[in-house]
Structures are given as C-alpha cells and as structure tokens.
Amino acid sequence: MKVNSELIFRRRSIRKYTQRQIIDEATILHFLNAGMCAPSARNKQPWQFIVVNDPAILDILSERHPYGKMLKEASLAILICGDKGIDDNESYLLQNCAAATQNILLAVHAEGLGAVWLGIHPREERMHMCRELFSLPECIMPVALISIGIPDEEKSPNNNYEQSKVHWNKW
Ligand SMILES: Cc1cc2nc3c(=O)[nH]c(=O)nc-3n(C[C@H](O)[C@H](O)[C@H](O)COP(=O)(O)O)c2cc1C
Fold it and tell me: What is the CA(170)–ligand 1 centre distance, in A?
C-alpha cells in the first residue's frame, strides 16, 4: 500500500516540457478512464472532457490562459467540465470535477509524464475563453484545464504535512 501511495507524494506540478510529442490514444484514454473513476456525489459522474491534442489549439490556449505559457510546449491538454444537465448542483459539480482532475494528474504522473492543473472556474474571463474556443453548450461549465507534456524539470516529493492542521476527535 505504501509503495502505491508514493505516487501521491511524488506528483508535482510540472510546467516545463521538452518538445511536443504525440501521446498515443491508448494513453489518453487511460487518463480519461482515471478521471471517470473519481468519486462523485450520488455517483452521477456529471463530467465531460475535452481532449486537446491539436498543436494549433494548444498554442491558442497558451496565449489566452494568463498562466498557461507552458501549453506552448505541452503535448496534450484536457479540459474538465461539469455538466449541469446531469447534476444542476454547482457545488457538487465542482467537487466532482476536482476529484476527476486529481485522478488524471496522478495517472499522468504514473505514466512518467508531467502535468499541471490550470485554474478555469471561477475566473469569468477564463470560463468565457473556454466557452468560446470550444463552443461549449450553455449547460457545460469549464472547471479545470490540465496541461500535459514530456517533463523537462524534476521536483522533490511533497512534504506538506503540518501537525497544526490536524485535529483529533475535536477542534
Ligand atoms: C484550483 C487550482 C488552480 C490552479 N491554477 C494554476 C494555474 O493557473 N497555473 C499554475 O501554474 N498552477 C496552478 N495550480 C497548481 C498549483 O499552483 C500547485 O498545485 C501548487 O503550487 C502546489 O504545487 P504542487 O502541485 O507541485 O504540489 C492550480 C491548482 C489548483 C488546485
């Protein structure tokens, strides 16, 4: 069990990539499968995923997301969206999409690739940018964008544990 949870501690936000390479479809489907394995409220699985592997669209995203410059070298991006047609509770949509996003980040790391979570919701201008670029229907809420590439940086494992944030049996 400890060996598997190493993956959680070793995942870091990777923002530097070597040159773009094609990521094969089986690997991409594996990432999506990981996303769809996430827990969701009432098991509604109210998510939709936009896979971006067109370099021209990755370039546009790199220019339009204020912290998305790394997308210029990214091989792939995945936009995680909440589907209000499946669940109209926005809070649950966000929580469900966040769980799916983290699952994808871990799956990407497990494959030896690098990824970073780029915030979309609740920034109106970023949500608008995604709505326009991908012609999203009204009921689709863009939540998070994951930039994925061949890592060109190494980071030490996370060690964020803080005793002061842990409360046993009472505050
Ligand atoms: C909701 C959310 C939004 C984020 N937005 C961005 C972003 O726009 N740009 C970016 O470079 N990183 C973004 N991050 C990644 C965080 O900066 C990163 O997870 C944090 O600094 C901790 O680093 P680590 O992932 O290496 O542990 C975001 C993370 C979350 C959870």
Answer: 30
